[in-house]
Amino acid sequence: MRAFLASEEGGTRPRLVQSRDRFFLWNIVARSRSSFLMNHRHLFLLWGEARWCRTTARDRLVRQGYQRILWVGDNLPSCGLSIPASKVTTQLGSEWDALVFDAWSGFDPDAFGASLGAVRGGGVVILLAPSPNTWPFQPDPAMSRFTPWPCRATERSSLFLQRLARIVSSSATLRLFSSSGPPFTLPPPPAPRPVGTVCLTEDQEHAVDAICGLARGHRHRPLVLTADRGRGKSTALGIAAARLLRRGIRLIRVTAPSLEAAAVIFRQAERELDGSIVSPGKIRWQENEIRFEAPDRLCRFPEPANLLLVDEAAAIPVPLLTTLLKRHARIVFSTTVHGYEGTGRGFAIRFQETLQRLTPQWRALRLTEPVRWGENDPVERFGSHALLLRATPAPDRVVENAASQQCRWAVIPRGKLIADDPLLEELFGLLVLAHYRTRPSDLRNLLDGPTLTVHALFHDDHVVATALVIEEGELDEKLAEEVWLGQRRVRGHLLPQSLAAHAGFAKAARLRYARIMRLAVHPAARRRGLGKRLVEEVISYHRERGADGVGTSFGATPELLSFWYRAGFDTVHLGLRPEASSGHHAAFLLHPLTPSMVKLHRQLRHHLREQLPHLLTSPLRHLEPETVRSLLKNLPSDPESLNPHAQRDIHAFAFGHRGYETCAYALGKVAHFALAKGYGSSLSTGEQKLLVRKVLQNHPWGEVIRCCEFAGRRAALSALRGVMAKLIRAHPDLVPSLQPPPSPP
Q1: Partners of 46 in the beta sheet?
Q2: CA dist 453 to 238, 253, 433, Å?
Q3: Any idea which fold 396-619 has?
């Protein structure tokens, strides 16, 4: 504390100041002493001219002796580690004594939330920004990320920053300094933390014991670890992995969104294992190993393991997690609940259903005690409030009686959202639950997106459903042509650009769309028609505003496709690669409103129907059979007539012993038509899977045998003959000119 009171000349007595400044200084001293004892972090705002802010922060940190400084921004000084906001995630798991976040370079909410978690107890966070009174109205470089073409980011003020400035100005824990106020003073750097392998909290020790017990206990009883950031869950994984290697476990695999995201596990395990051989993504100790594998590779190329540790599971698509769960008898899923990515709660709800279905004896363990800083840390409180990391929807009890037609629909002005924090929290909390990849940047887009409209259904003044809608399209003729040719892309305009550049219809970019980018219904009020009612209101509202059509895009699953089909939408295009966020192929759906869109809608659907047989054997060959069936049922089903020879091929395969390869073309035609007409309902789930995997997607026999669980090729081929015979007998119109033999008794 003496160093904190030292004057700029290096003495131990504070310099003489006026009475107001003296009171201000001693107030900081008292609060800093309290924070020091509780291992709290300190939060400062330097506001004023950009150069003064940067110079003052740098000079004070250097004079006070800070060594581990993380500086985030584009104007990077030569002290500590300087990185742009886009690189902040590379520092997840590392610890810093000081963070300088330069908002003059733009306020990126994701980067701010991520970097806050890297500062350890006793450290300082320094935010550099314009005056809170003018900050929201000055050009912000980060605004361009949320501004679609042709809007100009520099011409708009920020509602997100208005809310943030209000929080900054009223915060009791954040201390503001300017060039005209009292001198900027910092506490001393935190003392070095002892490097050891002992768990720092009781929570952490319980987690380590649970992981070690799972590795040697009953099979198929996965463990799910959840925690807020800074609770030491990744460190617990590393300690447990090292202990298990010492106890004779031969191979532990680790997976995470990236090797950098798993760095804490490997760093901690290395500390515990003296004499280990370390290389990137691998630790070898005696004959035992800890090895990293990317989640997609682990799913494509199954490898054995005594234990699989999945860190930051919420950032991995659920389909990949489900595959890992099925393949590994002993597995730990670990994820952040209220982290900068804001994904944990949505993940927990969605993946919990899968766990309950596949491994009903799974176990959940929550770490609550902070490791990196003290309880009730002011920086953590500030970040949670500013970024709505703990936003929750309305309590179940107040919306559980909501009925579709009794709810009130409204378009919510964004100005009302920043003036009504409970309303904003209910709405954003609902979005977090509905989509497991919701981030703080989504909050900024919600408040600052210039073409975004917020629709909501209210029950007793509580939000029970919401839809975020973005206006897109109306590109000029020259730009539409350039997009169609693949020569240019502009920010925003997902639907029109995808339909022009990928589906191949240049005129699609000329029309006007209202794209429903998010749709969320309160969990306590689902399956009562609220989502359908809200979509109807969106369609009516944007029809009056002159939209040519209402559209949407999402990772295709049978459940989602079924909802949107019932709401009057049709699939018009499919993404050829799985989305990073969901692990599913994107489906693009349209509801036409004008004659121009009706014509385009019809052309797009016929084009997709013609392309689908080829797509299913190449880029879409891993599309789930249930999804394939849903897509085919929604597309036009007029088949090409089969010539008599092809019909005899089908008959000979189904009721004789003709080889599959010589009949594959005709079988594919019949299978497409059968599923498009809904005839798949006469088949079992396993029979449909066989029909799609082999006949429509042309998987090799070995892969079909493995995924459909046949004893060998003869059994698989016999089953496929049975499937075709069953279809033809149940639906004679499939091969009308031939009479199938009677079914065996």
Answers
A1: 128, 177
A2: 45, 45, 20
A3: Aminopeptidase (3.40.630)
